[in-house]
Design goal:
The protein has 351 residues and is an all-alpha fold. It is 81% helix and 0% strand. The protein is extended, with a radius of gyration of 29 Å.
Length: 351
């Protein structure tokens, strides 16, 4: 009895093969042509975006010049400000290569691609927040551990490499977020650049007498700073969630020093100023040792840290003062608005 077996599923009859062959070749050619068209459309889109960005910049300058004119009426002033606000909003939505730092790592074309639609932008922001929180969570126990383990210089180096990775990643992601419309102060970007330099200098510092002289002070400050970062992040992320729910913050806004409400500032501000004072004191001690105690014979890292920590202290202190003034002005304005309402209620009660 002759045995017969079914043909394998990938083998088809002649007619079926010819039909599928034609369909495959036709669809492949169609996809190739469609891809060419998409590429051409993308290039045209980028060119139009560049032209639009230049026009917006020109008309923004013209709008600001008009606001300085003597003939300006109150109605025109409101109209010009509204239009300038709209132009600024459009400018943020335009794809652009981002600042020099991000172009150095990703190039201008890749930077453009990272500016996606609203959902992609929001997903990128959420991933940034998650990265920042996880790092902050791990930073505290690691810095505490190194505070008590001082005999292994290699562990200090690994910790500084870890910090260097954090600040480089943070700077890159925040540059991308700014391109996509997030509210990040320029000082915090500059702060991360300076922190990258600080970590790099620390990595180069061998276990010399000068290093051992200041190691404990650096580690104490690192522990306090890690704890402060964690407290800040938890409070500010909760406040940002509330503000976004109330419509007082945009979807792309990120956790920052501008986020806390007044009641939280009453708790955070003293802690921030204590951290600033520690930073200033450490910079001062480095300076006294470098220029007086050592007789200008200290390691070059001592001079570098004296300068870097001094700049970071000034920027942090100045930014914190600005935030306090902003919140105080907002609180004062709210109190002024409450007074007429309270007067009206009291008058009605008398009637």
């Amino acid at each position: 009895m002759a045995s017969s077996s079914a043909a394998p599923p990938h083998l088809t009859s002649g007619n079926d093969y010819q039909s599928q062959r034609k369909e495959f070749l036709d669809m492949t050619q169609s996809i190739i042509e469609e891809n060419k068209q998409v590429t051409q459309d993308q290039l045209a889109f980028y060119e139009k975006q560049t032209t639009l960005k230049k026009r917006i910049s020109e008309y923004q300058k013209q709008g600001h010049r008009l606001l300085q004119q003597k003939e300006l009426t109150p109605s025109d002033k409101d109209t010009f400000k509204k239009n300038l606000s709209i132009l600024a909003s459009i400018q943020k939505s335009i794809l652009n290569p981002g600042p020099l730092f991000i172009r150095m790592f990703l190039g201008s074309v890749n930077s453009l691609v990272l500016s996606g639609g609203p959902q992609r932008r929001y997903a990128f922001k959420k991933e940034y927040e998650s990265f920042k929180y996880k790092f902050t969570l791990w930073n505290l126990p690691l810095s505490i551990l190194l505070l008590f383990i001082s005999q292994y210089r290699v562990l200090d180096t690994l910790y500084q490499v870890y910090m260097l990775y954090f600040y480089v990643t943070l700077a890159l992601r925040e540059c991308i977020l700014i391109v996509n419309g997030s509210n990040i102060r320029q000082w915090w970007i500059l702060h991360h650049y300076l922190s990258i330099v600080v970590c790099s200098v620390m990595i180069t510092w061998v276990s010399s007498a000068d290093y051992l002289r200041f190691r404990l002070q650096f580690m104490v400050f690192s522990v306090y700073n890690a704890a402060l970062m964690l407290v800040q992040y938890v409070y500010q992320s909760r406040r940002l969630y509330v503000m976004t729910s109330l419509g007082k913050a945009k979807q792309m806004d990120v956790v920052s020093a501008d986020t806390p409400q007044t009641s939280m500032l009453n708790f955070l501000i003293p802690l921030l100023f204590i951290g600033h004072a520690q930073q200033a004191l450490l910079s001062l001690r480095l300076g006294v040792y470098a220029f007086y105690t050592s007789g200008f014979n200290a390691d070059w890292q001592v001079y570098a840290f004296f300068l870097l920590l001094g700049i970071i202290f000034y920027g942090n202190f100045y930014t914190t003062v600005l935030v306090v003034r902003k919140k105080y002005s907002a609180w004062k304005d709210a109190e002024v608005k409450k007074q007429p309402a309270a007067t009206t209620i009291a008058a009605k009660k008398k009637e």
